[in-house]
Design a protein that fits this description.
The complex is a heterodimer of chains A (335) and B (284). Chain A has helices at residues 8-13, 16-30, 42-45, 48-53, 65-77, 88-94, 96-104, 133-138, 151-163, 210-225, 242-252, 267-278, 299-305, 310-321; strands spanning 34-38, 58-60, 81-85, 111-114, 144-146, 168-171, 194-197, 202-206, 229-233, 236-238, 254-262, 283-289. Chain A is α/β, with parallel strands linked by helices. Chain B has one domain (5-283): Rossmann fold (3-Layer(aba) Sandwich), CATH 3.40.50.970. Chain B is globular. The chains are: A alpha/beta (335), B alpha/beta (284). Chains A and B meet through helix 3, helix 5, helix 6 and helix 13 of A and loops of B.
Amino acid sequence: MGGLNYTMIDTAKLSTAELYGKTLTDLAEDHPEIVGLTADLAKSTKIGVLGEKYPDRLFNLGIAEQNLLGTAAGMALNGMVPFVSTFAVFTSMRGLDQVHTDICYQNLNVKMIATHAGLSFGQAGSTHHCTEDLSIMRAMANCKVIAPADGMETAMAVRAAYETPGPVYIRINRGFDQKVYDNPDFGYELGKAVELHEGTDLTIIACGPAVWSAREAANVLERVDGIRARVLDMHTIKPLDAEAVRAAVHDTRRLITAEDHNIVGGLGSAVAEVIAESGKSCAFRRLGVPDTFSIIGLHEDLMAHYGYDMNGILETARDLMGADFEDDDDWDDEI
Amino acid sequence: MGVEREELLRLEEKARDLRKLIIDTVVWAGSGHVGGALSSIDIITLLYYKYLNIDPTRPDWEDRDRFILSKGHIGVGFAPVLADLGFIDHKLLKTYNHTGSELGMHLDRAKVPGLDASTGSLGHGLPIALGLGLSARLKGQSFKTYCLMGDGECDEGSIWEAAMAIAHYKLTSVIPIVDRNRCMIDGRTNDVMILEPFCDKWRAFGFNVIEVDGHDMPALCEALDTAAEAQDKPIAIIANTKKGCGVEFMADNYRYHYASFDAEKAEACKIDIDKYHDARAAAL
Ligand SMILES: Cc1ncc(C[n+]2csc(CCOP(=O)(O)OP(=O)(O)O)c2C)c(N)n1
């Protein structure tokens, strides 16, 4: 991935959205067909950075998300590569028919970089929480769906989105993320999980801010309990790295998913589909928001409240280790 | 109805107190949408302390007038009103935005008695008001539904879809009010997305329009009185306001859409508010 020049210092200094803004502006320098579109959230989503450098390539359409997404489709029909940024809840829901019919159905080259995802705008309440987008966007044919773990991975994902034709949806958080990656050389590839911790006892599959929690939990499990947990950063929800899931089922037989999203329809559901079709049974738990509209509060408090922070994952992992399996002679057979 | 001098003075004092309580609430909350709260508060004060037929002891009373805060981001400007009227416990304001609190940035109808709809996603309020109005007509209820919108919010197509339908159904019981503070998040409405000729847009959608100074209580009363008596054609009130009205450094400054300040700065705000309201009172 040429041209990526982000340092640890950048990721420490810049919020995830700021890294997105910087990446986009760098990309725009080399690719004149890139334009930015927003709906009165240029500053909040940091797409405004593009407009500071290229004022005529950023379009602020006012508070009008349907028009925003439809306009992006029109631009893509004319060969531009629109990056669209508003909050995740408005990208995936306020303008969804435009996303569905104008962008995904016509397989247009629109990149939706949606901010304030999951419960990261915790105090704003359910009108601004977005715990449905992975589920919704996953159901849009043609659309790739990505939930990066931190700022560095967001920069990689934004570049990958540009290089991948067709609609891409990337959801990022408000503010800073706990840092998972220190440098860009971790082999980011769209659709391929990153193994952050080796293990054969159980697998924790996570995306977004839950990735950091999962890795922390794995470290504790190893140190305190002697449990070897495999941790997969499943940044791409679609297309899902099904092979990595099947390998996890085969090798570890115990799986936990953790996501900043409703447990219905998101990463947990996507993984469950692969497990079910693998024909192999395993102990399995989905962690996330338990199909409820969340209480309000700080992001980290809410993750703890619903049990997908480090402690929640740890507890579930210990519980799952209690699951017993009978010997299965056919375990290694192909299905 | 008009407004007698004594009542006017009482309402003016209420607006002053509420402005200060909003500032306190922003401090308790850590931050908040203070600019749009201060531009709307005179309108909300008049509605809640003079016009709305409501009963804080019966928040679910079926025949009460309704108020839909379509610009739902100013929860920090509306919860103080509900607390002052006794719909919610005053102490709750001090928990605003705290983890697990009943009160977050955008208020939740399931947790806040007296709140007629959960809002926060812009462009939703007027269609909800339309639904309340149509159903009231069908059920033979005579309550009115006031809907307070931001001007930036009027970029949303759904506002105009509802406006068209309100006029179509001659639904005079629904009274749209726009807080025309000419500011949104990324800048002034004129710079981000031009709304003018704004009043003519409402006229073209089938409304009689009353344009009024949104910080002039007698003028607002006149507008609300007229709107309440509309017969065949609904009335929209366009209230010209200042974002951050009452606090010098915030006034008419879009950068104070959302702000946080400490107790010290809050005291300075309150001194400003007193100055502002003293001047207003002197001019009455
Ligand atoms: C559908 C939707 N899009 C975007 C936002 C984010 N947002 C919150 S407040 C705001 C600006 C509102 O401006 P205006 O309606 O003029 O309100 P005011 O200036 O009176 O506060 C925006 C864009 C939102 N809440 N809902």
